[in-house]
Design goal:
Elements lengths: L9 H8 L3 H8 L7 H14 L5 H8 L4 E6 L3 H6 L1 H16 L3 E6 L3 H12 L5 E5 L7 H8 L3 E4 L12 E5 L1 H14 L5 E5 L5 H14 L7 E3 L4 H14 L5 E4 L2 H13 L9 E6 L4 H4 L5 E4 L2 H20 L11 E4 L2 E3 L5
Parallel strand pairs: 1-2, 1-3, 3-4, 4-5, 5-11, 6-7, 6-8, 8-9, 9-10
Antiparallel strand pairs: 10-12
């Protein structure tokens, strides 16, 4: 039986590179102040020896764990069934990976999960938190604040008016909704209904506000609340057809609800777009392209939202741990534009 070879040490790397241990430490931990020729010698010695930094020791130097909590305020069944979350997580993962940070995924099913997440955040395991799909009564912001962690939120925060102290990345939900409804009116439709998302989330509220901006004083029967799932879109569409069988257009708050609405319209013998035009929100592929008919929708760059969330958080972390505090604070909020994508449904 062969013995396991000892792990290379900082001292071994320093000896191979012909530099001091302190120089190796600065290069390995990402600090400035080492001339590039020396830094290159250190990196070459690290590769040759297969040196892997000891994370516990590195954390003492950098005050960083190189791990970020990504908290989705939804149950597991919803997160893994809705491709929206996969796209946002992909954007976050790409940015964190590019900066050698680990993603720690935390989901919240009920209040017991909130307590568990709060304990984990307070335990010093991660450097910060990325949070999305918050609901208005969610305790997560308070738990994060008590843990003393920097955070970036996906979506416009509902508290504090989204003040300067709150970092967030959002989409122009209200403007995108206005574009959707104007498009339907431009087609000559007059009885335009709206299936909202869950109205305890700011994205759904903003899209409803955009709908009302254009429709001014809509018949209350033309607005039905869903919850961003396909099943809720189907139920809402049936309710709309019961109360307003004369409707000729529907703006759904996301593509999943639009797909559910299309199923209900087929069941009731309504042709799309001849009898009822349908517009969704997200441009979620392949849902939008494979819908029958293909779905006109409002595109938001979900993956880019995730990437920017991670970038804002990493910028904050660099600013707080940089020896000279040189990194800039960056913007408190970023709002990405939307684009109307025309297909066959409207």
């Amino acid at each position: 039986m062969s013995e396991t070879a000892p792990r290379p040490t900082l001292e071994a790397v320093a000896a191979r590179a012909g530099v001091s241990r302190a120089t190796v430490s600065r290069v390995v931990n990402g600090f400035d102040g080492v001339r590039e020729p020396l830094a290159e010698r250190v990196r070459r010695a690290v590769d040759e020896l297969g040196y892997v930094p000891n994370q516990a020791a590195r954390s003492l130097v950098t005050r960083r764990h190189d791990a970020v909590a990504v908290i989705v305020a939804e149950p597991e069944t919803r997160v893994f069934a809705d491709p929206f979350f996969a796209r946002q997580l992909r954007g976050i993962s790409k940015e964190l990976t590019a900066h050698d940070n680990q993603l720690v995924l935390l989901l919240t099913e009920d209040r017991d999960d909130h307590a568990r997440v709060g304990r984990y955040l307070a335990g010093g395991h991660v450097d910060g938190a990325l949070v999305f799909s918050l609901h208005i009564d969610d305790p997560l912001p308070g738990l994060i604040q008590r843990a003393g962690l920097p955070a970036v939120f996906g979506g416009r925060p509902h508290w504090n008016g989204g003040g300067d102290a709150v970092r967030y990345v959002d989409t122009d939900n209200r403007g995108g909704a206005r574009d959707a409804v104007r498009h339907l009116l431009g087609l000559g439709r007059r009885s335009v209904a709206h299936i909202t998302g869950a109205l305890d989330q700011t994205s759904a509220v903003d899209r409803l506000d955009g709908f009302r901006d254009v429709m001014a004083d809509p018949d209350p029967r033309l607005v039905v609340e869903g919850d961003f799932t396909a099943a809720s879109g189907e139920r809402a569409m049936r309710e709309l057809l019961r109360h307003r069988p004369d409707l000729d257009a529907v703006f759904a708050g996301n593509d999943l609800m639009a797909a559910g609405a299309l199923r209900a319209l087929r069941e009731h013998g309504r042709r799309v777009p001849e009898d009822v035009a349908v517009v969704g929100f997200d441009d979620m592929l392949p849902i939008a392209e494979q819908a029958e008919p293909p779905l006109t929708t409002v595109r938001q760059d979900i993956e880019e939202m995730g990437r920017l969330m991670a970038r804002l958080l990493l910028r904050d972390l660099d600013r707080t741990t940089a020896p000279d505090g040189a990194a800039g604070a960056g913007p408190s909020g970023v709002v990405l534009p939307t684009t109307l994508v025309r297909r066959a449904s409207a």
